[in-house]
Automatic annotation (TrEMBL):
One of its GO terms (biological process) is DNA transposition. This is Mutator family transposase. Belongs to the transposase mutator family. The lineage of its organism: Bacteria, Pseudomonadati, Bacteroidota, Flavobacteriia, Flavobacteriales. Coiled coil: none annotated. GO terms for molecular function: DNA binding; transposase activity. It holds the Pfam family Transposase_mut. Keywords: DNA recombination, DNA-binding, Transposable element, Transposition.
């Protein structure tokens, strides 16, 4: 190290106007430094400091009266190791080296890499291992969490952003995740609302946590959409949660309601023994026909009631499926055949729930609801910026239908 400092001192003391120094001599000095322990880093540090000092000199020539005012230290990385740079200052404080913008961009890229790895399911330990392999620096779990502070704030701001005034369709559903709270672990509900905008593109409007799922809680979340700018909704698709229709009617009384057909078919099949399910499944395909204009919602509900009457003597638990609220399972038949398949289930939001769980499953019970919301929000953000940004043009037929009706 003393040898390295000696070589650097010689380089710093050279005045080429007084001494004639051959190129070979300069090369030898630089080679001695570069070949020594940590020499490459020291040369890089020396070079960057010189660049910034020269830049300040140019700044002072263009801004008379803005005198030098010493230096401040700034940590940076080079060749996998840390450097301490001497950043020049001026009295007016108007000087900012261009080089620092480059270093800042590099820091931002590294933060994005850490965020991306964590979002894709890697634990903080695994993220640290990858980062060390690429950049030569190891981070603890606490340091990784600190580096993701900006990412957490970004996701939090995104989840609270202002929304559009009208959505063609809202899909609502909850998924349950093992969550650590008050020194115990239990499955808690995480509510997601996925919207279809007027141009046909998708947008995740909300992700929130409630320990349980209930219609009252859903009404609370639908009301919160209004506070963020939503004024009207054309259609809301949900599962068959008890009293969910009342919550929807209270929050958006002009919205139509579609109960998920996949859920009711699954529940009906569960009533029958396995030996009869293939046969019953074929009947249900006819009862819940899609992409058709040949039957109305009321007629389809009557067919469901006939199906229940046909089998309820042998399977009495089927009787509940003829409840009048179940006409909402056929709301999709009031829409053009081209979009019936897209609105008769909550499949889109169920796929999003699977994406959430794919990221969460490597971690077991998360440390807090906030950490789960951060990961789920980051997954939703990525989906929106990529696959959700492409409009599904067939949804525009909903608006055309609405105009004809008015």
């Amino acid at each position: 190290m003393c040898k390295v400092k000696s070589c650097i001192f010689k380089l710093q003391q050279i005045n080429v106007q007084t001494y004639e120094l051959y190129t070979e001599q300069i090369s030898d000095l630089l080679l001695n430094v570069a070949n020594s322990e940590n020499g490459s880093n020291l040369l890089m540090q020396l070079t960057l400091n010189a660049f910034m000092k020269s830049e300040r000199h140019l700044h002072q020539q263009e801004n008379e009266g803005d005198y030098g005012n010493g230096y401040r230290e700034r940590k940076a990385r080079g060749f996998g190791k840390e450097m301490i740079l001497k950043v020049p200052r001026t009295r007016n404080g108007t000087f900012y080296p261009v080089l620092l913008n480059v270093l800042r961009n590099e820091d931002e890229e590294r933060r994005k890499l850490i965020f991306s790895l964590y979002r894709r399911g890697l634990t903080t330990e695994q993220v640290s291992d990858v980062y060390e392999e690429i950049y030569g620096k190891e981070y603890s779990k606490q340091q990784i969490s600190y580096l993701m502070k900006d990412s957490r704030e970004e996701v939090d701001i995104w989840l609270k952003r202002k929304l559009e005034s009208h959505y063609l369709v809202l899909y609502i559903d909850a998924t349950f995740v093992h969550t650590r709270r008050d020194k115990s672990v239990s499955k808690e509900g995480y509510y997601t609302i996925l919207g279809i905008k007027e141009d046909g593109s998708r947008e995740v409007l909300s992700i929130v946590n409630h320990p349980t799922e209930g219609a009252t809680l859903w009404q609370m979340e639908l009301e919160s959409l209004k506070e963020r700018g939503v004024q009207s909704v054309g259609l809301i698709a949900s599962d068959g949660l008890t009293s969910i229709e009342n919550a929807i009617a209270e929050s958006f009384p002009n919205a139509s309601h579609q109960l998920c057909v996949v859920h009711i078919k699954r529940n009906i099949l569960a009533v029958f023994p396995r030996t009869k399910r293939l046969e019953i499944g074929k009947e249900l395909l006819e009862t819940f026909a899609i992409e058709t204009k040949s039957i109305t919602a009321v007629e389809a509900f009557k067919n469901l009631c006939s199906f229940v009457e046909k089998y309820q003597k042998s399977y009495s638990s089927l009787k509940s499926f003829s409840n009048e609220r179940n006409i909402a399972y056929f709301t999709y038949l009031n829409y053009p055949p081209s979009i019936q398949r897209r609105i008769y289930t909550t499949n889109w939001i169920e796929r999003l729930n699977r994406d959430y769980k794919r990221v969460l499953k490597m971690r077991g019970a998360m440390s807090s609801p906030e950490s789960i919301l951060f990961l789920m929000g980051s997954v939703a953000m990525e989906k929106e910026y990529k696959s959700y940004s492409y409009p599904v043009t067939t949804f525009r037929e909903i608006e055309e239908l609405k105009k004809k009706q008015t």
